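Sample entry (633 residues):
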Amino acid sequence: MTTLNGRESAPSPGTEPDPLDYRALARSDAWVVARRRVFRQLIESMIYERIIEPEIASVGPALTFSIAGRDEHGEGVTYVCEGRRRLSFDRIRLSPAPVRRVAGGQTGEADSISQFLLETWPAHGADAQRLSQFISELEQTVLKDAQALAFALEDRRPLRARPYDEVESALPDGHPYHPSYKSRVGFDLVDNLRFGPEFSPAVRPIWIAARREWTRVSVSAQVDLATFLRREIGEATFSSWMGELRRYGDPEEYVLLPVHPWQWREQITALLGEDIRAGAIVPLGVSQDAYRPQQSIRTLANVTSPAKASLKHALSLVNTSTSRILAPHTVQNAPLISDWLHGIASSDPFLRDELRPVILREIVGVAYDRPRPDLLHEKTYGILSCIFRESLHPALDQGEEAAPWTALCHVDRDGRPFIEPWVRGGALEPWLRRLLEVSVPAVIHFLVGHGIALESHAQNMLFIHRGGLPTRVGLKDFHDGVRFSPACLAAPDRQPALHPTPARHVRVNRNSFITTERPGDVRDFVLDAFFFINLAELAMFLADHFGFEELRFWAMVDEVLSAYRARFPDLAARFELFALGVPTLNVERLTNRRMFPETDVQVHSVPNPLALEAHRGTSRRQANDQRVEDAGR
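Predicted structure, serialized as tokens:
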């Protein structure tokens, strides 16, 4: 039970582990597993983004990386680890073996991430303030991930046996590249247990009413706001709250929106207390429906009524690279972009009749943004916002099921890959081909056919299937997850009139922009999100767990792209415009962003596995490395 102060009632004794038993957690096997993973992803990304330049020794495809540093006494130390460069974007992937620290003739496991970053400071030269914050984020990631891993030991049911909503929450893996993949700076261990998705908590948002004059509201063209809110809240509760609101004035002068309980407790009551006392913000009550957090933490799915909308809340956390507030201009743009994409998918015969991707529209956006002096506005910007997103369930056909795309690279609690039952007995290649046929053209047709790049990475894409056989994909998270060049749109007259990005927002996050003049920026947005994250991770996973060559994987991707191109010869000029097969592309430097000031857009150039040369055999080194490794298995 959640009260208006945002706190849950205490659980029954023995129903969950003690979240404050930090000492036991820090000595657990789960802690070691989490720390080693953070260490691996940190070093992988620092080498890949050229933040450090280690000495490299090679024996066939196996590489030994040696990173030099100095301890607090000025004595030399060396950090040593093994790994490989993969065919997929030349990614660095370390072996599961622990990172070793060599000092004073002694070798042992490197067990301090902060010590590593401080001792190698001369090599990377990170900004001192940024480095201090980054170390905290990494340590918080170890803490939160260890807590989730320890909790998972209590429930060994494989995820593949669970319905979509449970998998969406319980999937524990987090970002496969970013080293602070579960930092959640702002949550303590109690908060993480109460609101972290891995723990499948029941969360009941707090509904408030905000003065309309200071609230930005955006609604899909297909939605009547009053009718929608009555249905989401429930008729009896809605009527009761309207009666309560009349004590403060005309209910028509207010807009209703839900707030995450943690955000209410930690941010709203502290930073918007004057507005609450003045009646500009009126707390109404706790949701009658229970919700479950999804992978993205700030998005809650309705458990009581799964067909109702999901709620994407502003949360003043730092997780991976960014604060998880919701900037008002993106909240306003959400229904506009969703209607635009939905209209394209509904009118384009290839999308509408063949691929049939599910476009989970963001149908209502509400942001409280009262004008304030700059000093105060800095603290309250984007902290009280919510986006309502359509539920997946009404969009599924009879017999269809769904899973997060990220589940495709998950190893279940029984030690078997999530996808293993679907691909065994020689079924892997036909299964993979079908997966690529329903996913790649969906993303590419929006890009090439219409000029719109979708940020279809990780939890932004859903795998829809019948008994494991891929049928189509679901796409979501559009409020700031698209990019386009107005001059390159196939139908520029259909583009929505979006609310511009404020200058202060650009200064804080230079990687956050929707429009650009450069077609390459649009293309790279797709290649970075869908190909660099979703497909590259799947390519490496299939190679590691099923022996399926990465070279063959990317050749299959190329075959699907070639078939798409042959299907639409009239788009030849647009294929040239977006040039998917360029030798290199720009991808985001996620770790560099945490270590250095963002004076410019944080990207770096990496090899593109979609370059035709990679499939014609001129990329000899990677192909030979793959064969040597396969022969040694």
